[in-house]
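Morning run. Coffee first, then this:
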Amino acid sequence: MSAVEPRLVSTRLLRSELMLIYGRRRNWAGLAVLAAMPIIVAISVKISPPGGSSDGPDFFSSITSNGLFVALAALTVELPLFLPLAVASIAGDSIAGEANLGTLRYLLAVPVHRTRLVVVKYIAICLFAFSVTLLVAGVGVLMGLTLFGGGDLTLLSGTQIPMSEGALRLLLVCGYLGICLCGMGAIGLFVSSLTEQPIGATIAIMILTVASFILDTIPQLDWLHPYLLTHSWLAFGDLLRDPIAWDGVREGVMRATAYAVVFGTAAWARFSSKDVTS
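And here it is:
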């Protein structure tokens, strides 16, 4: 008898999910809005010198010295609202959208195991989170280098590094923000499993995210800050120091991972026992 070859893990369901996400016109419109922000930032700075930014690391004042800062400034601007909204719309639609359209029951009848479906949905959310972050950064780099050029990058600590290392630091920033958004995506997946209204799920996710930002600014609630989803999101500025201050970044990664585990498990538990009627 010939040995039985091990069965490879199929990516068909994941590919189908990604085609569904990136194939919708409304998602393309959202991606266009995200890509427009670094263009607006670059053109605005080219026309009028910046006066600085009050929230997060001050990248605007450094744009004219190196185009890479356009990407960093755009990420800073979009982080409080646009990037979370983009991920929230995908996460909120992940399960609730299928239920709302009446395709969830037929999808499970393929058959697709519910655990596998939840895992694939979350992987797709995470891939989208990383892709939108890279999109903003990529457009920012393109516009920045076109309008302002490159050269050595001056870090927040005052140290200058070569352009190649600056690009690597930017990739680390994108990776860190992608991980943070994945933590929010797990919350979105859980909320999406509770309802059949994707718009309602998206609104709920955004309310939680904005509330986290607001609570994080209240000094009297400093005891609550370490537990808030967005508490270390702006710690990506620590990746642009010499040496890199890993404490805040490490804390942010651990927090995002904790949110992903807790709410990913909650989404799996809810969906596994959910009576799917639509």
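Confidence is low (pLDDT under 50) at residues 1-8, 52-56. Good start to the day.
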